[in-house]
Each structure stands twice: as C-alpha cells, then as structure tokens.
Design brief:
alpha/beta, TIM Barrel, 8-stranded parallel sheet, about 290 residues, 10 helices
Length: about 290
C-alpha cells in the first residue's frame, strides 16, 4: 500500500455498487450553527462526505449547508454537483411499525432537502429482532423508491448482522458503522462484516481525544512525523475502514486528514492493534438483545 494512497479524494465501492468517500466529516454533537460553518469549510478543503443522523438534530442545517455551498459560484469554483457530495443519515430508533419507519425516512429526506440520501443507517439494534427486521424492510423500500441510494446499520454486533443476513433480505446492508480506534479494535464485529462483504465505518476514530497522550501513540507520531490524530486516522485507513473524524475547528478539520506523507509499518500497525482495551467513549449497543 503506497504511502500516498489516501486523500480526501479516496473512495471505496459499496456492495450497493455506489462509491463512498473513504474520509468523511462526522457531524455528531455539532450544533446547527457549527454544522453551517463546518460543512462549507470542509467542502472547500476537499471533504466530500458528511455523516449526520436524526438523533444529531442537525439534518436541516447539514442539507442547507451543502445546498448553499454547491449553488455558490464563489465557493464551488469547480462546478461540483449534488452527486459529488455523499450524505448519510440514520434512523433514531427501530420500530416494529413499518409505516412509522417509512415516514421517518421521508422526514429525514425532507429535512436535508438534497433530493435523496446517499446512505441511510439503522442507528442501533435496540428494539428487538422484529423491530430490526421491519425497519430494514422500510430501508429496502426507500432504496427501491429512490429516496435512499445505499442502506446500512450502525452499532450492530455480530449477532445482529448474522440475524439480518439470515433473514434473507432483498437488499443487503452495505455498511456497519461502529466505534473503532486502536483502543477499541472491534475485531470480532469487523470479521463478521468482512464475512458478509459489509464495509465498516469507524466513528470516534480519534477515541474522542481520550488517548492522545498514550505513550505508544506519542512515540509513533514522533517516529512518523505526524500528529496523534493523523496517526489514528491513518491506522483506520490501513485497516480498510472509513473513518469519520470530527472537528469544528477549520485548521484541525484540514490537518486531521493529511495522512499521505507517511505509511505505518505492519509492525507498528500491530503495536497499535495491541492497545485495544475495549474503550467505549460514548455508548455501546452492540450486545443489545
């Protein structure tokens, strides 16, 4: 893997056939105002993917920021179109009521105003088997009706993935978005996803800055002449993940993804893998019943 393999232009092909930017900006815990300022900065810096959710309460602002930037000739100097930007949202909670989920997807689509949602995920496996499967049927129908391009899940453990795949879905999930970083490597779930051809998106790839001063991280950042954040993003990419680093600061938003100038050796990747302590920085529904 050559050291300049990864940039904001890097893409991964999803099982749905669509491509997804391999580096994206996570919009978790961003206020509407922060989203309105961060997305234009990110688009101008070269970001092409944005990860929102119903639970983030910023879908309207995310869609507005993307639309405004695309329609501004002074910002969008290269004439990018809607299809050049990848937008993700997620269902707040699974329900056994199919109609409720269908309406919820339509309201997300309305909120962003982007014409379609590139990737729509079930945000967690909470609710039980019937709710998960009914909710997935609603995602399949949203895809077939053109509201959503690709579907997936988030925070699904191995059992939930096997359950969904075992239900013989009409459309297979393209993505499972879970917390992954060197301090929570999630090897079991990643292995299950690999078995089913599901792409893994890594949220919290910087471990929410909780381990930036870890001695191993600091030593390797010094060795590779990069920041601890760049090291952790590069680790994600070399594992074939799609990391969603989050920052509201323009300089950091640009800096975090400058990872083409170095490549972590196999030995040092293994050293970082060894830091796993199953650190959960927010929530972990992957073992929900």
């Amino acid at each position: 893997m050559s050291s300049n393999t990864f940039s904001l232009a890097s893409k991964v092909k999803l099982p749905s056939g669509h491509t997804i930017p391999q580096l994206q900006l996570g919009l978790y815990m961003m206020s509407g105002r922060e989203v309105l300022s961060s997305i234009p900065q990110a688009l101008s810096a070269g970001y092409r993917g944005f990860d929102s959710a119903q639970m983030y309460h910023n879908e309207c602002e995310a869609g507005q920021a993307i639309r405004d930037w695309l329609s501004s000739p002074s910002s969008n100097t290269t004439g990018l179109k809607r299809e050049d930007v990848f937008y993700t949202s997620k269902l707040a909670s699974c329900s056994t009521n199919y109609q409720v989920v269908r309406r919820s997807i339509k309201s997300s689509l309305e909120a962003c105003g982007l014409g379609y949602i590139d990737l729509f995920l079930l945000h967690s496996p909470y609710g039980g088997r019937e709710a998960r499967l009914a909710s997935w049927r609603a995602v399949e129908d949203a895809i077939e009706e053109g509201e959503v391009r690709s579907g997936g899940v988030s925070n699904f453990g191995s059992r939930h993935i096997d359950e969904l795949m075992g239900s013989n879905p009409r459309i297979k999930p393209s993505v499972n978005q879970i917390e992954v970083h060197p301090f929570n490597t999630q090897e079991g779930i990643r292995e299950t996803c690999k078995k089913h051809g599901i792409v893994v998106e890594a949220y919290g790839p910087l471990a929410r800055a909780m381990r930036m001063n870890d001695p191993t991280i600091l030593a390797l950042a010094k060795k590779y002449e990069c920041t601890p954040a760049q090291l952790m993003v590069r680790w994600s990419l070399q594992h074939g993940l799609i990391p969603l680093p989050k920052s509201v600061k323009k300089a950091r938003l640009i800096d975090n993804v400058k990872v083409a100038h170095f490549e972590i050796s196999a030995e040092d990747v293994a050293k970082m893998d060894g830091l796993d302590e199953h650190l959960v920085t927010d929530w972990d529904p992957t073992d929900a019943p």
